[in-house]
Specification:
The protein has one domain: Sodium/glucose cotransporter (Up-down Bundle). It is built from 22 helices and 4 strands. Strands 1-3 form a two-stranded antiparallel ribbon. Strands 2-4 form a two-stranded antiparallel ribbon. Helix 8 packs across helix 18. The radius of gyration is 23 Å and the shape is globular.
């Protein structure tokens, strides 16, 4: 069978499983809809958390960005992995003990303020919409190539699927669906990585193949070969960094603390029965995440090596079938500047001009085709990419819906709303959120990992300080928390919007504040949040004694 037929089979079967699981585990109460009734086993919750966490940015874009940026791209790997550890150890057990459904719920009750709750709701919606745009973009890319539709149609198909099981199942349906999605995405990621590692290095373990010699008997290490290929074509050496140390630090820190402030990940720790189970599921999730994250650098190196050896200086008429297939999607563009018909894929240091533009988000999806793997592997990778994108999109859409129905309505504007009315409002919110997210998926502000990095920066500058001070500072009051959140997210969002939308021509290290890129500015926004919150908190009355006792109890084991 052809790759397209295998894709239809793999995607069709996996989607049928997801929808079947959503129907089987559909939510019947608000407790089921928000936190799956608090009855999920820690191992299953760990798998669901890993699927929720490993979005299209992890599956599709992380290896792609490492493939193009080399060592600099590793900031995403370090930041996201370290951030999950930070979340699991520093915040998750305390938030689970507090026993609220959502982050705005925690902020509102900890600071005893409806104002703080509403500000947290707005931050949650803003962060989640930014994040989900990247997921919808990933869905569109996958469909555009392998189902022979354009990205707009691909995003529309993904919107319909995720809306169906998010509206029907809520957190209960999403949790068990994400367990199935994790199994699909990790299998889809590892199988081609093992195949290609064997072909290039003769080693079946990609993580070891990444540091091994080539299988051609030359004794040359893979990374040495990649450095030579890169420099010969005018690109910087693959293993050399080009970002400033300060920017690398700020991006890594923003991704780390942004992870700890992401509302859709935090809510997963409410779906288990007790605090000990939350800790256990966090540990299992880290194991499941590590399977993909330790493989990503190898996938990136394999993809880059195959790309450079099969495309550059090749006559366009002799280009392999995968090249022209991806070219039809518009995600690869060849501009024959000198009219010789030869594809000049070169860096700025080359003697000739570059004639090839490649969307870095296609690298993982195109990798099996570039390596000429069997058609069923190609179909499997597409199914895995869609599983990664849709699982995270569902979690984010649930955060948006619960922020509106639970935090804004029940806990604010309509405290007397019935359970049935609240559940209806949550489901309507999902539908509206899907439409808005679909628009941003069609018109994204950057490639997938970059868009997701913006979301992490926004979370770092808004939620993380409020949550951290809410747990570990009895003196922090609602005035300080609200002022900090507003100052942090306003600064960060303004910086990103200015360089990405208002003046994109100035988006370079020469114009950035202190040389900090928009992807890393969330760290500075976080520091501004802490400073503003601390100053305002000192100048305003301390929280009531009952709140201070609540914080003491929150930090007491048991």
């Amino acid at each position: 069978m052809s790759a397209q037929v295998w894709t239809f089979v793999m995607v069709g079967v996996s989607f049928a499983v997801y929808i079947g699981v959503a129907v089987w585990s559909r939510a019947r109460t608000t407790g089921d809809f928000y936190v799956a009734g608090g009855s999920v086993h820690p191992v299953l919750n760990g798998m669901a958390t890993a699927a929720d966490w490993m979005s299209a940015a992890s599956f599709i874009s992380m290896a792609g960005i490492i493939s193009f940026q080399g060592r600099d791209g590793a900031v995403y790997l370090m930041g996201w992995t370290g951030g999950y550890v930070l979340l699991a150890l520093l915040l998750a057990p305390y938030l689970r003990k507090f026993g609220k459904f959502t982050v705005p719920d925690f902020v509102g009750d900890r600071y005893d303020s409806q104002t703080a709750r509403f500000v947290a709701v707005l931050c949650a919606i803003f962060v989640s919409f930014t994040y989900v745009a990247g997921q919808m973009r990933g869905v569109g890319i996958a469909f555009s190539r392998f189902l022979d539709v354009d990205i707009t149609t691909g995003v529309g198909i993904g919107m319909a699927i995720v809306a169906f099981y998010a509206v029907l199942g809520g957190m209960k349906g999403i949790t068990y669906t994400q367990v199935a999605q994790y199994c699909v995405l990790i299998f889809a990621y590892l199988v081609p990585a093992i195949f290609i590692s064997l072909l290039i290095t003769g080693n079946a373990i990609p993580q070891i193949g990444f540091g091994s010699t080539l299988a051609d008997g030359s004794g040359t290490f893979l990374l040495d070969k990649l450095d030579v290929l890169s420099t010969d074509l005018g690109f910087p050496a693959y293993t050399e960094g080009r970002k400033s140390t300060l920017d690398v630090f700020f991006i890594t820190a923003a991704l780390m603390v942004g992870t700890a402030g992401l509302p859709h990940v935090i809510v997963r720790f409410y779906t288990v029965k007790k605090v000990a189970a939350a800790r256990s599921s966090a540990g299992w999730a880290l194991v499941f995440i590590a399977l993909l994250y330790t493989t990503a650098p190898a996938v990136a190196a394999f993809a880059r090596t195959n790309l450079l050896t099969t495309i550059s200086n090749t006559h366009y008429a002799d280009a392999p079938p995968w090249f022209k297939a991806w070219e039809s999607t518009g995600l690869i563009k060849f501009n024959d500047l000198n009219g010789d018909g030869i594809i000049q894929y070169v860096g700025q240091g080359a003697a000739v001009a570059n004639e090839l533009v490649i969307d870095r988000d296609i690298m993982v999806l195109a990798n099996p085709e570039i390596a000429d793997l069997p058609a069923w592997v190609i179909g499997l990778v597409v199914a895995g990419a869609l599983a990664a994108a849709l699982s995270t999109a569902a979690g984010l859409l649930l955060v948006i819906s619960t922020s509106v129905s639970h935090d804004l309505l029940r806990r604010g504007l309509r405290p007397n709303i019935t359970d049935r009315g609240e559940l209806l409002a949550a489901r309507i919110s999902v539908v509206v959120a899907v439409v808005v997210a679909g628009y941003f998926g069609i018109n994204p502000p950057g490639f997938v990992a970059q868009v997701v990095a913006f979301a992490f920066g926004l979370a770092a500058s808004s939620f993380f300080p409020a949550i951290l001070m809410g747990i570990f500072s009895k003196r922090m009051n609602y005035q300080g928390a609200v002022a900090g959140m507003i100052a942090g997210i306003t600064f960060t969002a303004s910086y990103i919007i200015y360089f990405k939308f208002i003046s994109p021509e100035l988006n370079s290290a020469d114009h950035w504040l202190f040389g900090i890129s928009p992807e890393g500015i969330g760290t500075l926004g976080m520091l501004i949040n802490f400073v503003v919150a601390g100053i305002v908190g000192k100048l305003t009355p301390a929280p009531p004694k009952s709140i201070q006792e609540l914080v003491d109890n929150l930090r007491t084991p048991g």
